Amino acid sequence: MENQNITQRPPKTWLVESILVTLFCCLPFGIAGIINASKVESRFYAGDIEGAQRASREAAKWTKIGFWVSIAVFILYFVLIFAGVFTAISLDQFGN
Question: Phi/psi at 25 (nearest 5 deg)?
């Protein structure tokens, strides 16, 4: 099992991506990504290859969910802002 660790590389940790999602996008999902990302290398070097791969998949999942949810929220925010501005302009034109 130890020789397998030497020749094999650990799975992607997603730590940097998780931190960025936490800081700029969506705090709860980013934290879930960080927690799982921190488990990848420790499990890999402990010999738990399957556990490391599972933690990497979970970190990727939560990081991507956090990213896409924040993109959807930003889009919805801007749509609502534009709808409000359009409504205000429309009401102002007909109000005079």
Answer: -120, -85
